Isochorismatase (Bradyrhizobium centrolobii), 191 residues
Amino acid sequence: MTSPRSLTALIVIDVQRAFDEWEAAGKRRNNPDAVARIADLLKAFRASGAPIFHIRHEGTRPTSSFRPESSGYAVKDEAREAPGEPVIVKRVNSAFIGTDLESRLRAASLTTLVICGATTNHCVETTTRMAGNLGFDTHLVRDATWTFDRVGPDGDAHSAEAIHAMTLSNLNGEFARIVSTDEVIAAFGAA
C-alpha cells in the first residue's frame, strides 16, 4: 500500500452470523481463520485511527438468512463496530449501490480501500470490482475473506478453495491488488 493512513479506509463486508448458521447446516467454507484476520485488521486500523466502514447485508427475500428480524442478520462479535464507526446497510451485492458509501469516502478524501469480509465471490467481489471501477486504489485481503462450496449450472461441484482462488485471480491487477493481512499491517506499521 502506497497511500498514507490518512487516505486509507477499511471496508468490512457482511461479517454476519448467517454464515455461522450456514456452516452449522452443513455448508463447507474455506479460510477458517478469516474472521480472526478481520479482527487483526480492525485492531490495526483502530490503533492507527484510520477510518473503518462496516457493511451489513439486509436480505429482502422471505427465505433470506439476512432478514433484519432473523438471527443471521446480527454481526459476528469479532467484527462488531466500535462507537463512531459507521454501519452501512445494503440490499444488493455491491456496497456502493443504494448506499451513501461512495459519497462518504469522497467527502473524507479517502482514496485507498482495504476490503475484507464475506463472501469472496459475491458481495466482496462485487464491491471490489465497483471500487476499482470508481477509481479507488483497492486492496483485497486474501486471508480475510471466505466463501462456500457451490454447484454450478451443469451440476459440477466447485470447492470453496477453487472459487476463492479464481475470484482472486479475476480481480488481481485490473480491479484490485490482492494482499495479505500481514502485508496490510506491515504497511500501517511502516507509515
